[in-house]
Amino acid sequence: MISFRPKAKYDQESSVVLLTSQQKDKRLKKELEKGEVFPVFEGQRLVLFVGLGKADQLTLTDLRIQVRKALLSSYLKKIKNVELIPHTKEEEAVKAVIEGVLIGTYTWDKYKSKEKDDKTVKDKHITIAVDPKKEYEQTVVICEGLQLTRDLVNDNADLITSEYLEKIVRDLIKGHKNIFLEVLNKKELKAKGLYLHLAVNQGSTKEPKLIIVKYASGKKDEGYTAIVGKGMTFDTGGINLKSTNHIETMKIDMSGAGAVCGILKNVLKLRLKKNLLLVLSIAENAIGSKAYKPGDVIVGYAGKSVEIGNTDAEGRLVLADAFSYVFKNYKPTKMIDIATLTGACVIALGFDYSGLFSNSDELAKDLLASADKTDDRAWRLPIYPEIKEYIKSPIADLKNISSIRGAGACTAAEFLHQFVDGTTWAHLDIAGSAYAESQGRLYYGHGATGAGVRLLTDYLLNN
Ligand SMILES: [Zn+2]
């Protein structure tokens, strides 16, 4: 729980975390290095000084990292009430402090036994000593959307099924106006001809679903922006089975659809005045006697045939059908998809940046601006006219894997591009950024990071 109060009360019940960028307080014996914590015990109360280094060298990322470290420090383990005093009243810095609290201290411990007495940050009441502001409340809302995404991505694949995600969406939109829902299950996907989507799910006992939320709160003449998330609730790789060290985290292959849930939550909470289509394309890429096969040629909703070169390149197949269906039936003027699409994107950019592709320099520029502002980072990678040569097939219109060894993130993006039909479009590959392994990275602990939620929420708020 987090709240704002202009003046720290220093009540005896609370402990105080004081962020400091230089020595000012006489209780401090020396100037603290960045990341150094210094406890001072005053009766019942603990004052924890947290060094931020020199103010002019402090980045907002650093600030989030230090807030996280301070709140997770063992000094505060058993303490319930914490007052957090930022080193400045500057708005962007205070927002970063809020994110350090809410994003930085998120932990996935649903299945873990807890030590008695242990107050995880979730149980703490944290008061930030600043004047309440609309902007800060908005940051809190966005962090809560992010948390929903992270919970969905972190939980078991057999719990977070297509049915479960449909229930999440239905619960979120319940009671809201100007909202319409279309859900295509196996029966409807078949009747309408989304055979690429169906092929991917063929080996699974679970229901494939295409969920489309139409949110009509913008002006009548304003076009619709579609956000489409890949929701592979588990990706075994199919008959091209993934190997050990690659398969263990594959419950996260629905991170795109998880991000769409977080964004939907934010859109509703912030009452965005926009016309939006929020789309979840959900399947499970399972292995078994019914699974689709390498070498198969499948004709999707757009009428294009695809040779399956590798059953593990399944995300582009479900997205291709989702794109075609949404374009034909909802006619958005802009589309952005978000997907854990390629291991190649992880090789190219690592874990701290999502890969961004677009057929529009303007859209790419706007998305990169939001990425910069929110620290939900992205880096643009190329698609270009000649790249489509690499996804040609001798027996079909397209092949779902590339004929060359490198640039796998780019050829995957180009495959999607083939289903975009001239509409303004961008693709975020979050294969690396959606998840933090082992001890975490930046200000994210282990597990899902909610990549794309802050970036796209900010984009929708400002464009
Ligand atoms: Zn795959």
Structure in words:
This protein has 2 domains: 131 residues, Leucine Aminopeptidase, subunit E, domain 1, CATH 3.40.220.10; 322 residues, Aminopeptidase, CATH 3.40.630. It contains 12 helices and 19 strands. It has an 8-stranded mixed sheet with strand order 7-8-10-9-13-17-14-15, with helices on both faces. Strands 1-6-5-2-4-3 form a 6-stranded mixed sheet, covered by helices on one side. Helix 1 packs across helix 2, helix 4 runs parallel beside helix 7 and helix 6 packs antiparallel against helix 8. The model has no long low-confidence stretch (mean pLDDT 94). Bound molecules: zinc ion. Zinc ion binds next to loops.
Tags for this model:
elongated, six-stranded mixed beta sheet, alpha/beta, single chain, 31% helix, binds zinc ion, 463 residues, Leucine Aminopeptidase, subunit E, domain 1, Aminopeptidase
Low-confidence runs of at least 5 consecutive residues: none
The total domain count is: 2
Query: What is the second-level CATH architecture of the largest domain?
Result: 3-Layer(aba) Sandwich
Using only CA atoms, what is the Rg?
Answer: 23 Å
Which shape, going by the Cα principal axes? Answer: elongated
Estimate the strand proportion: 15-25%
Q: What is the subunit organization of this protein? A: single chain
Task: Give the biggest sheet.
Answer: 8 strands, mixed
Query: What is the residue-mean pLDDT, rounded to a whole number?
Result: 94
Structural class of the helices, strands and pairings?
Answer: alpha/beta
CATH topology of the largest domain: Aminopeptidase
Spatial order of the strands in the main sheet?
7-8-10-9-13-17-14-15
> Percentage of helical residues?
25-40%
Number of E-type strands = 19
Name of the CATH class of the largest domain: Alpha Beta
Count, helices: 12
Which small compounds were modeled alongside the protein? zinc ion
**Termini gap:** 31 Å
CATH homologous superfamily heading of the largest domain: Zn peptidases
